[in-house]
Amino acid sequence: MNTTKRTFKGASARWLLVLTVVVVSAALLSASTGSGKLVSHNTPGYVSTAKSLGASDPSETIEVSIWLNPHNRSQLDALAQQLYDRSSPNYRHWLTSKDIAHRFMPTAAEAKTVRGFFEAHNLRVVRVGPNNFFVRASGTIGDVEKAFHVQLNNYQVLGNVIRANDRDPYVEGAAGSLVAAVSGLDSGKYEHPMMQRSLPVKSGNVVAAATVSPADIFSNVCFPGTETDVLSNNNDGSLPIGTYHGNILNLQNLASNGCAYTPPMIQTAYNLTGLYSEGYTGSGQTIGIIDWCGSSTIQSDANAFSAQYGLPLLNSANFAITYTPTASACIAADQVEINIDVEWAHAIAPGANINLIVPPSASFQDVDQAEYTAVTTGLANVISGSYGSVESFTPASVLATENSISEIAAASGISTNFSSGDTGDYSVYGIPPTVNAPADSPWATAVGGVSLALNPDNSIAWQAGWGNNQTLLSEEGFVSDPPSEEAFGFVGGAGGGPSNCAFQDVDGNCLAGFPKPAYQKKDVPGKYRQLPDVGWVADPYTGVAILITVPGSVPAQVWQVWGGTSVACPMFSGLWAIANQEAMAGGGSALGLAAEYLYTMPAGTITDVVPVKSKNNVKGTVQDSSGTTAYSANDILGGFSPAKFVSALWDYAWLEETTLVISFGTDCTTGPSYGFITDCTQKSSLHTKKGWDNVTGVGTPIGQAFADSFYGK
Hints:
- This protein is of the alpha+beta class.
- Helices cover 20% and strands 29% of the residues.
- It contains 15 helices and 43 strands.
- Strands 15, 16, 26, 27, 28, 37, 38, 39 and 40 form a nine-stranded mixed beta sheet that branches. Strands 17, 18, 19, 20, 22, 24, 25 and 33 form an eight-stranded mixed beta sheet that branches. Strands 6-7-5-11 form a four-stranded antiparallel beta sheet, with helices on both faces.
- Helix 9 packs parallel to helix 12.
- The longest helix has 21 residues, at 565-585.
- The N and C termini lie far apart (57 Å).
- The relative contact order is 0.15.
């Protein structure tokens, strides 16, 4: 077996990473391959360790794509840097799609060569991408295996069955030298990072508050005070008896919807109303929201939501749905992510156009091609992507493709904004800490999350880096003794930390992350790209309201409460559209990549989110046959003791005599697993601090000051 040295250049910095690549033995290839290319780093890392469930059905039809190498890549990398360098004559002289095609993209002749490769292997070409960047073909798994000299197996991965190639593909003949990556061999896909709070039931129906005034739907106060709860077995005074005192959490119950934030509340809290009074609402900008499948009711839902809160209605002049490449086969009502993204991008930037860009599925192949199409065909000038995948479980070739698309967007004056994830550093899954892709790209803006507490006048009482832990104090009249026995631990929190798996060896093992971009050099630790860049509302316990059609409900449109960085991302994308409007209104140009500016914002434009504590954190005692034992707020969380956090009692309405404690500012994911929840008994890798941190980035924007700072720039 031979070895060779192969050099890779990071797209966001001039540096070299030398990897040792094992070349596939000639015995694995047919005698007829001749000249060709092994497409390295195209195998998911889990293939070497996950349980194989056997070969995929060779008669199944799938689609695969070859992404072609761009031309003059080093020149593109250098020019992209210059476009954000104030000292360069190229500063913000954005490239047009025609410029990019002429200078950097593959030629029609090269695409024809790749087409010939597919056709020679009984694979039918179904699409050639814009500017010849990819060629996509359809065929049976058996024919795909023969064409690329791989075997496709099914693997058990984190409770899912995923198809993947067992080795890196080989492309024979003249097409080989043109190949950057092959997608579609594996069935890996993105997921939406979102978390729900369900609504209570009244008279047998889910509460549907569209017929009452906004003030009657949700409270803006999630932490209304303190209370003392006395809990006993069977609620009859028998031992053990738990007595707890502390903050209370105002969530929905059988009498009230509890707290959730609506557009007027958020607009006031983050000083967006001042922008609107100045005439800055995102007018003239288009937010491209990428969500797969599609919703059959999104426009009617969003318009009922808008009517409720005095927002402009969506119509053919300000709203479009673009299916790419064709109409989806999974269009349905109740597509929650689409409602979150459309309603909350619109709530923040009510004057912006929205283009809902819909790929047919969540596969890496479909979504990446939809994003690339949006970038190169002018569908939007701000891209919002509330989705992601685990970086260390994503093939390095997919990560490189994502990075290339975001780089092309940045060079075109477009910001691609992505959620940082809702599972902390992913060690909840029993894997080494890692981050969310494609938010990991140095050419993308990663949006993290916060918990938000408002005062009655909608001013901000406090913000904490989003991270919740949960302890069950009593369930249906049975008291936990001690409470730490039912410390369920981590239930959700913003993703963050360093990219560490953008470069992988031939077995998919992590070697290095994306390099730290220039905009993070000064104040951000480590040598790799760090996530996130900025934060906004994400905690489902302090979540936002959406209106959505749920088939079978009476009435059909119902209110729900959601959180996750899936909320934070479209919110920030809306504000970035307004910032673009301000820049151009003053005679400047489009701003491009948001992350490039966030680390040098003027004072008073960003709120630094730091650790927060409460003097009324939940503490208490349990009296049993052996006596009375006192438990501190830290004890109740199972011994996890960050320096500062907030905790509150939640009287859970759907089980009688059931009370929990929820903590805030505890983005912990390190510790033994409890199903998909983690017992946080060790130090977390994610925490807020003064300045940039790996939960909230630089902090949350102060709307008017933030956008006004870009006027005329």
